[in-house]
Design a protein that fits this description.
Length: about 425
Amino acid sequence: MKRALPVIFGLVLILAIGLLLFSPGNSAGKSSQGKKKWSKADNQVTLRKNDKKPYGLYVAYERLADLFPKANITTSADQPGQWDSIAFFGSDQAVIIFSPRVMASQYEFRNLLRFAENGNDVFISTLAVSSSVSSYARLDVDYTDISWFKNNDLAADGMTESLVTPWSGQYSYKGKRMEGYFDPLDTTLATPLGRGHEGKVNFIHLKAGKGNLYIHLSPLSFSNYFLLQPGNINYYEKALSVINPNVTHVVWDEYFLNNRPKDQNESKSNNWFSSMAKNRELLAALLIAAGFLLLYVILGMRRRQRSIPAQPPLRNDSLDFVKTVGRLYFEKGDHTNLARKMTAYFLEHLRSRYQLATGLLNDDFIQQVVERTGVAEEEVRPIIDTAVRLQSNVSVNDKQLETYYRRLEKFYQQA
């Protein structure tokens, strides 16, 4: 069982990393396609006032104070009609709503309408409205499924917006084209204020008692990415100029943004692996911990064995063999033959180790031996002279042999 534990831990670890990296909605497990200016997380449509991502509304919210310098600007997530910062039955107030969908119930829309009828302005920018809103002015809204914008990369379609007279000019960018249209539009009840793709109406004004209701179907035209394009901030200023500039209170309402129905793709990606992966620091810490655990498992899977004892290096018995043979010749008294054998071994040593040619044993050869071996010439020359004499028929007595032997041993030690 103990041997199987590292394998089990390894398989569990690999499975956990796979689920973390390749779980639905986790962009860390997806390969990037082409060069993008923003990551997939930045490419999401949030429409939140504190979001500085391309499709957040940070710029739009921060510019509200410039458009309405006399107004008290607040944020609310309460149901329509239950705002704390404004008076429901007061006047000269405004409510601004940004959300991908405004699926207001009859009760919620009725409260918005009554608030406008008291002499206030309601500005709604969304992609789709509920039947309660569309039936009020016999509106037929055509829009693209919001889930398309969740999964697509930064679209190259682009979007171009324009406002009707007295405002002129076109405003465009190369981001996502997320907008709806009023098709057809009952002009007896609604006044067109802006147009989008192919000149279709996407911004209208509805009169509501003493106040006004504005419905705008291109919320991305107020996004950071759109407004930061050259000249596009003018679209924002002109579009919101329809609101009474002398309002005393402005509420940035996020009720429908927080309570909008989830898309099918959002519900699928709502798992704890994806939630952890959204935090880059946490994901990096998990991957580092997983790496150390994997290294520990791999090291633990190695076969354990006893240490191998050190073995002494093999001895070179060649010199011992030569000495044995030398002693054999010496005991027989054949000193000349033994001296020649010692000379042959000496010359072979010079050829094999120092790559010296031993054909001519002259002064040049002696200088080469001195240079290659580093042994002094006084030690080398007597050896070479003896080797030359042994090439002729000379006899060697035991004292000469002993002297020759000692010179060779000293050479081997110094070389």
